Amino acid sequence: MVRFNMLLLLIVVVCALGAVTSQHRARKLFQALEGEQERVRQLDIEYGQLQLELSTWATHPRIEKIARDRLHMVTPDMVGRVVDKPAAKPKKGGH
Amino acid sequence: MVVRRRPQRGHRFAESPVLQLALQGWRSRTVGLLLMLAFAALVGRSFYLQVINNDFLQEKGESRYRRDIEVSASRGKITDRNGDMLAVSTPMKSIWAIPGDARTMTGEQKKQLATLLDMSTRDLDTRIAPDKTFVFVKRQVPPETADRIAALKLPGVHQEKEYRRYYPTGDMTAHIVGFTGVDDKGLEGVELAFQPSLIGRHGSRTVIRDRRGNIIEDIGALKPPQDGKDVRLALDSKIQYLAYSQLKAAVAEHKAKAGGVIVFDVQNGEVLALANWPTYNPNNRENLSGAQLRNRAFTDTFEPGSTLKPFTAALAMETGKFRPETVINCAPGRLTIGNATISDAHPHGALTVAQVIEKSSNVGVSKMALTLPSKEMWEMFGAVGFGQLPQLGFPGEVTGRVRPWKNWRPIEQATMSYGHGISVSLIQLARAYTVFARDGDLIPLSLVKTDQKSVRGMQVFSPKTARDMRAMLEMAAGPEGTAPKARVPGYRVGGKTGTAHKLEGGRYANKYVSAFVGFAPVSNPRLVVAVMIDEPSAGQHYGGAVAAPVFSQIMGGSLRTLGVPPDEPLQVADAAAGKGRL
């Protein structure tokens, strides 16, 4: 009887230690998850800022200025244009 | 202690009578019972606290390690139809201080903070001078600067997260997009109109923090943050830029006071461009004036002038009394009704209805209008949207003014037929032209992308009248019409000029509003473009000279951008000649 009780005690102690360890590991993992989520937020913010930067660089006035001044591009006059008629018959409007 | 003696007995030396004294048994039992009762009460109380009513203590205990934290949500973006950014929020920090604590900063620390915040030490001192518990030192500080301030660990200086709204396209789209205040609340334009869906709702979560401040567990209710919904406008930023830059150039060229342009798709009513001048930079809103802020296309009404003639003529044809080839005698270029005289800019002889529109004869249109019942004309104005809200949900929309038909005098009916004595906004005028660009029906306009290929509208004129009017409007924009400058190479265009005197203090001043409203390609209209230039004062003021060239540029560019196939052969462009240049 005493031996059986000792065995039970041992099992209880092992289980208790197991519970403590798994709780600790769960918290570690949770912290890691938390860190990654924070990184997601940071990257999201950075993405927004990059989008903003992109659209600031790609504003139409700037593109036109560079095209005209630096690349010396011009709008072709009517003589220089060839109109490529679409092969398929043009779409009819909805009315 | 009271001790009752037993009756006196003889006693021996060996025994003491004192020792024979005894307490009565019930006394000790009573004390024992009381102690037991007290113990039972304690057990009961603790059972009550631990098992039956344990919420209160549980909560007190949790509050020692549990924290509620706010999860911030950002405001939705505004993009154009192709996804180009028009308004974006990005996180910033606001630096605030508890003045009492902040005043303990050393001179050196104050100097560091002031340098980082780009302000003088004296400004900083005045900021933290008042005896309050909370003052903003500076708002909307870039996150990098805020991190460096946090690293200084200054006493009484704290930070809070907030958002700042950026508008990459700046003044180009300022009127349509609008702007938000410092607390992320829409104040103008789409930012205000779509505030309920743009706004983000902050969430919250309850967590356990450990001694180092790390979050180690989520407990309790989690309320996820709801980011604001993105709004995708119908605007095409290429066409918008084109419209804006052409308008800006025209206003400068004609030394005008203001101007407005609207471009929209005839098939589904999507507004592709809406530009106003003067405008402002929404990213830097210091020294703003009301004139810059006003979205003229929506909020300002003007007398539309001759741009209204096609509506009168269409109604006259609808009654069956007139046909495009019906001849009206417009000689000698004047018409007297009562004691007022209507006159043409250039006197004409006999004109057909088509020529009345082509040459824009006031006399011709007035004669047509006088055959119409006032009520029908009034109803037609209402049916094409004049005097009605455009119902785009845009802040500051106006109805314009159409007086009730019952007290129209004949002279008023005549002047209204060519657009005087009635006032409309540019958006109303442009929208009304859908009845000619389509087969006689009026469609609602939309600021947001609809994903609909086409919509059906409310029938105002018969399809035949609309087609006849299209042909007439093409003539008006033709070589013999009032606006040959409105033509676009490669496309057939139709449209009408308008040159209206401005009312100032109840009388017509020598100032003008030049307008042009038209559509293209005539064979299957795709776009309506409306141009309005307010007070051109560089010599020319006729719609055909001021507004029509702007229309031509914007229409041509927009059709190319949308890839609409040309419906008119190019006269000169031989393929061979072209190839050499390309």
In summary, what is this structure?
The complex is a heterodimer of chains A (95) and B (582). Chain A is mostly helical and 95 residues long. Helix content of chain A is 71%, strand content 0%.
Commentary on this structure:
With about 100 residues, chain A is an all-alpha fold. Chain A has one domain. Chain A has 2 helices and no strands. Chain A has helices spanning about 1-55, 60-70. The longest helix of chain A is centred in the N-terminal third of the chain and has 56 residues, at about 1-55. Chain B is of the alpha+beta class and about 575 residues long. Chain B has 2 domains: about 65-100 and about 165-235, Penicillin-binding protein 2a (Domain 2) (Alpha-Beta Complex), CATH 3.90.1310.10; about 235-560, Beta-lactamase, CATH 3.40.710. Chain B is built from 22 helices and 21 strands. In chain B, the strands form 7 sheets. In chain B, strands 2, 3, 4, 5 and 8 form a 5-stranded mixed sheet that branches. Chain B has a 5-stranded antiparallel sheet with strand order 10-9-21-20-19, with helices on both faces. In chain B, a hairpin with a 2-residue loop joins strand 13 (about 335) and strand 14. The N and C termini of chain B lie far apart (about 130 Å). Mean pLDDT of chain B is about 85; it is low at about 570-580. The interface between A and B is large, with 31 and 48 residues.
